[in-house]
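During the second half of the funding period, the structural biology subgroup turned its attention to how the target accommodates small molecules. The most pressing case was 6-O-phosphono-alpha-D-glucopyranose, which had performed well in the primary screen but for which no bound structure existed. We therefore specified the complex as follows and requested a full 3D prediction, including the ligand pose.
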Amino acid sequence: MRLTILGGGGFRVPLVYRALLDDHAEGRVTHVTLHDLDAGRLAAIARVLKEQAADVPDAPEVTVTTDLETALTKADFVFSAVRVRGLEGRATDERVALDEGVLGQETVGAGGISYGLRTIPVMTRVARRVAELAPEAWVINFTNPAGMVTEAMAAHLGDRVIGICDSPVGLGRRVAGALGVDPSEARLDYAGLNHLGWLRGLHVGGRDQLPRLFEDERALASFEEGRLFGTDWLRSLGAIPNEYLHYYYFNRETVGAARTAAKTRGAFLLDQQRGFYDRLAADLDGSAFAAWDRTRLEREETYMAENREAVDAGERDSCDLQSGGYEQVALSLMRAIARDERTTLILNVRNRGVLGVLDADAIVEVPCHVDANGPRPLATDPLTGHAAGLVCAVKAVERDVIAAAAGGSRTLAVRALATHPLVDSVNVARRLFEGYQQRIPDLAYLR
Ligand code: G6P
Ligand code: MN
């Protein structure tokens, strides 16, 4: 089996490769093709992978290329994890928004819209190329903002593109841990959009265990979401929100913390990653893997640091620093499809009536049954109240972004910004658009 990774010079590629190295079963991935526009980054990551493979006799063979056609031809699976305009773009998304007093996060709010507006045209071209060159391939999309990017790609690839995210798995694992149950025994009742979902139940042996968690103050306060959102708020909601909902429920505090931080998340990672890739290019003898792993740990430790700081939530738990979710979802998904290993995973797929508040083609993030035929979303309880409202509002924004990208429409881009629940004025939206267009040349196509 051949796996192609777009954004193959990206920092998280060794996580995926690590998961592949642990798979020795028949039908496993035997060839990995890394594609990237930047040959220097490709070389750095290839070095890390080489060290990872050193003691593994059946390690998948790795090739690198900067040519998209070569990369896609003969691929069985295509992972997409690209970042258009890199971390510099991410830092600009944040800065322009924060200067207007609104959130600039890469997937939520104005920042996510700017990022989507420059990413969707690129990923639409990729989707077309996959449809031409590898029509049988399955595309697993990590590229953020993953919900809207997957929806834009689905117009060309149908159900052959599947969006993934590690945050629902992490949430499920933490809640199962707080309840003292085995995560593999738990059925998660989770629904929403990417980075906008709620865990409404966690069932073991047919019984929902969440009510027990709400009654146990100490257990409820013991994990990341309990500390971020506070136990009272979780009880009021009667559900555990995805960590990204912190930007909505505590918007003023999170924007405040981001504005006063010495560096935005994007600016911090830009420096950190630059340091890593430069060091590797300069030092051809040291261990590339050790340098990568140190950098990875520092990245994990500082993940969502501003959010925790905004509400005094303290440090991350050591068990949340191990990574694992990201590559495990990807690998389980590939195994389920390629070897018909039936399983249930939370994925970003077309709704098909599962969430009644959205139409059939909307990409939603819900538990899916997966087998050789691909994923099929499972019937679930409806979204109600403010969750239903928020999901509909944000889906409308995503659709405006997709339509703006497809038609080069400035009007729709401004409408997307103005109608986002975290942008508080049409005038702010207009200024945001101007600011983004001035600083990000990729947005010149919007007229
Ligand atoms: C989580 C999200 C991903 C996102 C990543 C960002 O894993 O689910 O969608 O890419 O965090 O983390 P970063 O370290 O880049 O802030
Ligand atoms: Mn994600």
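Two results from this model are relevant to the next phase. The longest strand covers residues 196-204. DSSP finds 20 helices and 13 strands in the chain.
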